[in-house]
UniProtKB/TrEMBL annotation:
Upper taxonomic lineage: Bacteria, Pseudomonadati, Bacteroidota, Chitinophagia, Chitinophagales
Gene3D superfamilies tied to this protein: Aspartate Aminotransferase, domain 1, Type I PLP-dependent aspartate aminotransferase-like (Major domain)
Gene symbol of the encoding locus: argD_1
Name of the molecule in the record: Acetylornithine aminotransferase
UniProt keyword list: Aminotransferase, Pyridoxal phosphate, Transferase
Obligatory cofactor(s): pyridoxal 5'-phosphate
Family membership noted in the UniProt record: Belongs to the class-III pyridoxal-phosphate-dependent aminotransferase family.
Gene Ontology terms, MF aspect: identical protein binding; pyridoxal phosphate binding; transaminase activity
Length: 375
């Protein structure tokens, strides 16, 4: 059987990983500033993470949600403490798309409305509602097409007000920092506007924090920079540091009922052990403050460099927009300098490293990109 291979893969096989580095099968070391697309939050193969997961695997790896799983309560408690959302509720699932899918369903159960506001260049996942709210026609199959999603321009408060005049809005779904769309940071004023319109119209504010959340922006949720409280936060990626887990954090005003949301693997013992280990390391090693400090350092230094069109982002979610003729720099970084980065459009380099990135790692990258821009 052949793989149904839909991914444009680099011709590299990773066989070892530690901290912010990975190694290929030939022993070549790479600096990882991509983190498997914002997934590696505490660094690869962190000893505490490996220990907690291994120990859990030796006890019980899976038993269904038909019994009590105390690890879920422990996770909810710690997540409440670290995120500052102690009065919210937690529902566990397995991926970012699934988290958004459930958030949108819950919103519609809550107020009975159907219209969803999403934004141009958004990415919310590849399942039916999540993909319908994603601004990328290439991944929306005919069966996913729906009139229920209204795409508004990014940061257009007037268009937002007009859309709300219909009085049919179920939810607004927004990434506090658009990731796939090119690292676009939503302004506090725009997020506050969404909050007040949702309040006035009984609509649900969904903060898609799958990529920009979990401490990456220098605060637990990027929406925290605007001082707004969302009704639902969706999470995945960094939550399990590579173990598949997603979740939604739900305002106390929502009431759960049996059968409303559910999934076989959601909140399984191993996923919870992984997520607990991640939060323990984030707290013990002060990784959110580190993301802010190293992110600020990187952005300040990048802004001094020539030729770069724009540096955007917050914390360790950084976009470097290059002129189109310099789009090849990303490849040079990988093949010449052995540094993995991500991309959004061919000319935007995306940095989504582990939150434990050090100044030395940042300097290694700065030296490499300086050299490429000098050529
Ligand atoms: N939301 C955002 C903002 C994302 O960046 C992604 C993944 N790139 C998703 C949702 C979907 O997550 P998953 O791939 O885990 O389904």
């Amino acid at each position: 059987m052949q793989l149904f291979n839909v991914y444009p893969v680099n011709d590299i096989t990773i066989t070892k990983a530690e901290g912010s580095y990975v190694w290929d099968d030939k022993g070549q070391q790479y600096l990882d500033l991509y983190g498997g697309h914002a997934v590696i939050s505490i660094g690869h193969t962190h000893p505490h993470y490996v220990k907690r997961l291994t120990e859990q695997l030796g006890k019980v790896g899976f038993y269904s949600n038909s019994v009590h799983i105390p690890l879920q309560q422990q996770l909810a408690k710690l997540l409440g403490q670290v995120s500052g959302k102690e009065d919210y509720q937690l529902f566990l699932c397995n991926s970012g798309a699934e988290a958004n899918e459930n958030a949108l369903k819950l919103a519609s159960f809550h107020n009975g409305n159907k219209k969803i506001i999403a934004f141009k260049k958004s990415f919310h996942g590849r399942t039916s509602l999540a993909v319908a709210a994603t601004d990328n026609p290439a991944i929306v199959a005919p069966v996913n097409e729906t009139d229920n999603v209204i795409f508004l321009p990014w940061e257009d408060p007037v268009a937002l007000e007009v859309a709300f005049q219909t009085n049919e809005i179920c939810a607004v779904i927004i990434e506090g920092i658009q990731g796939v769309g090119g690292i676009n940071v939503a302004s506090p004023a725009f997020l506050q506007k969404i909050r007040s319109l949702c309040d006035a119209h009984n609509a649900v504010y969904i903060a898609d924090s799958v990529q920009c959340g979990y401490g990456r922006s220098g605060k637990f949720f990027s929406h925290d920079h605007a001082g707004v409280q969302a009704d639902i936060y969706t999470m995945a990626k960094g939550m399990g540091n590579g173990f598949p887990i997603g979740g939604i954090i739900i305002s106390p005003k929502f009431k759960a009922s049996y059968g409303m949301l559910g999934t076989t693997f959601g909140g399984n013992h191993l996923a919870c052990a992984a997520a607990l280990a991640v939060l323990e390391v984030i707290s013990q090693e002060n990784l959110i403050a580190n993301a802010e400090a190293i992110g600020n350092y990187l952005m300040t230094e990048l802004k001094k460099l020539p030729k770069i069109k724009e540096v955007r982002g917050r914390g360790l979610m950084i976009g470097i927009e290059l002129p189109a003729e310099l789009a090849h720099v990303k490849k040079e970084l990988l093949f010449k300098h052995k540094i993995f980065t991500g991309e959004a459009k061919p000319n935007v380099i995306r940095l989504l490293p582990s939150l434990a990135l050090t100044k030395e790692h940042a300097d290694q990258f700065l030296t490499a990109i300086k050299q490429e821009l000098a050529n």
